[in-house]
């Protein structure tokens, strides 16, 4: 049950332009997955040939079909095996000769895979792709931690003044005002949380910026920063792919409605710096699995959002925040 919940979620596995007609292996919840592109789009199969278990990602794409490197069985985009060279031509291809096909979509410049039969809806990102907004993809960042720990760090307001002091916060302005957390349209959203930022976006301007956080799925969250009196908005979107029990990959999208003609690189560099400031902390956290029993750690009112997140994971049946592989399932 717990695993089904994440099994039915969409997980970001790579940038869309990384998938070509060269098969590519990725991992989701411990499952090896092969991606390839043909004229009909991107396809995701279990990275295992049903004949003798070779990795399909060692093969190649010929005429839009994925051809296994071992005995050259050919799979079309639906996963059906359409050619078995060793089979005399008068014999039909066994009906069971089919790759295990996963749901796969291109969205927000990323490839998303769902291993389950009944995918949840993809998360919303209304600003993405608007003419007056510009998005930079950052990462993927490798992290030796569980996805809920990573998402919780992203949702944590009161670390900004210390872990990111001088960039996203200031130790002399560490108080967090009370804020609301509401569940609206299938996601959690906070009221505006003012945070003093000595250098809010790398342009050397200090002052209060309002953060509005949203939790979009157990492994996807975002916040939007705005400043009163200014039309500028910066949204940072974080999507975590739990590769296996110990490792994750984190994709971050920065969407801004200002400096549209400026290069993206400084934004990416800024985000890299911020991310690596968090990395040691998140990888150090014990226990590795986010404790969902609220008695297990201490909480302040300023932790209202992360408390809501823990309660929600608990309600969803994601026991202890773990995301375990379900290797028996095909
Ligand atoms: Fe793939 Fe034999 S193992 S064709
Ligand atoms: Co941080």
From TrEMBL:
CDD domains: Rieske_RO_Alpha_N
Presence of keyword Metal-binding: yes
Top-level lineage group: Bacteria
Positions of the Rieske domain: 10-113
InterPro entries for the chain: Cholesterol_7-desaturase (IPR050584), Rieske_2Fe-2S (IPR017941), Rieske_2Fe-2S_sf (IPR036922), VanA_C_cat (IPR044043)
SUPFAM superfamilies per record: Bet v1-like (SSF55961), ISP domain (SSF50022)
Name of the featured protein: Vanillate O-demethylase monooxygenase subunit
Keywords: 2Fe-2S, Iron, Iron-sulfur, Metal-binding, Monooxygenase, Oxidoreductase
EC number(s) from the headed UniProt entry: 1.14.13.82
Keyword ATP-binding: no
GO molecular function: vanillate monooxygenase activity
A Pfam entry, by short name: Rieske
